[in-house]
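TL;DR need structure tokens for one chain.
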Amino acid sequence: MTTYNLFISHSWAYGDAYEKLVDMLDAKPYFSYKNYSIPKDDPIHRASSDWQLRNAIREKIRPTSCVLILAGVYSTYSKWINIEIALAQEMGKRIIAIEPWGSERTSSAVKNAADKIVKWNTDSIVGAIRGY
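>> reply
TL;DR here they are.
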């Protein structure tokens, strides 16, 4: 079974969606992945400069096969999610935008950067990951 290296972009202000996504991926039978996301308690958050934080994020994204981004409208206004998009694009990483369940408004910035846009559905998300 292939193990997929994933970076899941998220905002800790909306950490519940991130946690639910991880739970969905963990529960999927015959799907294995390694999560390169930045945990809430990671010392990267205490970087002394934006440059240091940007480089730390770059190193987290580097070994991944794709970047998952929750496309909630809040993503449009997140400085770090926009930086993660730019870094993923610089490194040629595929971006999968995930539209939050039941959302009426989503981030056009995330969707415009995405190679694939999927709904909040485990099979759709895993299918997109396997597609790369």
